[in-house]
Amino acid sequence: MFKLDAIRIATIAALGALSVLWGAVWAESSPSKGAAATLEVKVLEVQPTTGNEALYRMEVISVLRSSIRVKPGDSIRVRSRLAGPEAPDQGLKPRGWIGIAYLNRS
Asked: pTM here?
């Protein structure tokens, strides 16, 4: 009886872990459709502009996917549209912020 319960619990835990990982992979890959580059970056400087845009100076930490010529250690300038109150986590990124940036060419 104990072995059967242990196997059942282990199976449910493994399926739960796989579903969480699958959701994380899907969420990570969904915004990158059509992006010219997917980079891990660190914000070095932030300049809010008029309206809902900001200019960033970022350091490239790693290149996850790119069709443009960029390598780790490069300093890039990025113009970003800020989201409204419906997406507060997509607002102005502070200096020192590290994360994934999906860049379009313009």
From this structure: 0.61
